[in-house]
């Protein structure tokens, strides 16, 4: 029930935008869940840039380490910053009341965000920040208008400024556009994985089920022919 409530709260802004007629173009994330190197880079970026405010509290550090092929020691040394134990849930260190006071609303847990909104939405959202002096943190977002969070990846991407013709010019980032796209794709991939860690196992199991059904079909067909041969 708690997961359902979180998913509904996360979805409400999207429903409001749809009701108001607001629509955006979403770029394809092209996430590859088989690319464990990309998923680990996404974990690294998420932990360094996002986990200070956001949690993935339905994931455990140990499960992530096992799935991504990371040793427990590397997980502790590189990606655990809250003093948690390897078997603990991936929660942030900010008390919810304090976060709500500082930001106006507590930053949502992101375990299910890719499942609720989709990988393309997450990818486009992380690329969609632009300068807006009317907002508390000086930025807005093309995918999520009136966004309430700062652009935490601004040092990597730079800051986009809207031009008179409606286009955006981005300057000041450490990375090229292609390099930033890869960082965002890695983060998106990690969130897609977090939303459904068993996805690859489920898909692999599906092929075994289809194989079994195919073999069973052949057996059933031959058995049917054997039973009915005297009738014809």
Can you characterise this structure?
The chain is mainly α and 232 residues long. Helix content is 53%, strand content 10%. It is built from ten helices and six strands, in the order ααβααβαααββαββαα. The strands form three sheets. Strands 1-2 form a two-stranded antiparallel sheet. A two-stranded antiparallel ribbon has the order 3-4. A hairpin with a 7-residue loop joins β3 (129-131) and β4 (139-141). The longest helix is centred in the C-terminal third of the chain and has 30 residues, at 199-228. Mean pLDDT is 87; it is low at 1-21.
Strand and helix map with partners:
Blueprint: H1 2-19, H2 36-50, E1 56-60, H3 61-68, H4 72-79, E2 89-90, H5 96-103, H6 113-117, H7 119-127, E3 129-131, E4 139-141, H8 154-157, E5 158-162, E6 168-172, H9 177-195, H10 199-228
Antiparallel strand pairs: 1-2, 3-4, 5-6
Helix pairs in contact: 2-9, 7-9
């Amino acid at each position: 029930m708690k997961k359902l409530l979180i998913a509904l709260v996360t979805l409400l802004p999207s429903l409001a935008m749809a009701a108001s007629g607001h629509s955006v173009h979403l770029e394809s994330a092209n996430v590859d869940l088989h690319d464990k190197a990309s998923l680990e880079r996404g974990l690294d970026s998420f932990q360094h840039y996002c986990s200070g405010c956001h949690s993935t509290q339905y994931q455990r550090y140990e499960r992530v380490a096992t799935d991504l092929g990371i040793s427990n020691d590397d997980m502790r040394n590189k990606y655990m910053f809250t003093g948690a134990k390897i078997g603990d849930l991936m929660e942030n260190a900010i008390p919810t009341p304090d976060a709500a006071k500082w930001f106006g609303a507590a930053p949502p847990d992101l375990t299910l965000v890719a499942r609720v909104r989709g990988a393309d939405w997450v990818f486009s959202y992380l690329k969609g920040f632009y300068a807006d002096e009317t907002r508390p943190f000086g930025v807005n977002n093309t995918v999520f208008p009136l966004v309430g969070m700062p652009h935490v990846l601004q040092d990597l991407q730079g800051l986009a400024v809207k031009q008179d013709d409606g286009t955006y010019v981005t300057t000041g980032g450490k990375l090229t556009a292609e390099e930033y796209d890869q960082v965002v794709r890695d983060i998106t991939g990690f969130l897609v994985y977090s939303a459904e860690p068993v996805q690859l196992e489920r898909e692999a199991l599906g092929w075994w089920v289809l194989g079994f059904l195919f073999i069973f079909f052949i057996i059933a067909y031959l058995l049917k022919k054997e039973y009915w041969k005297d009738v014809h």
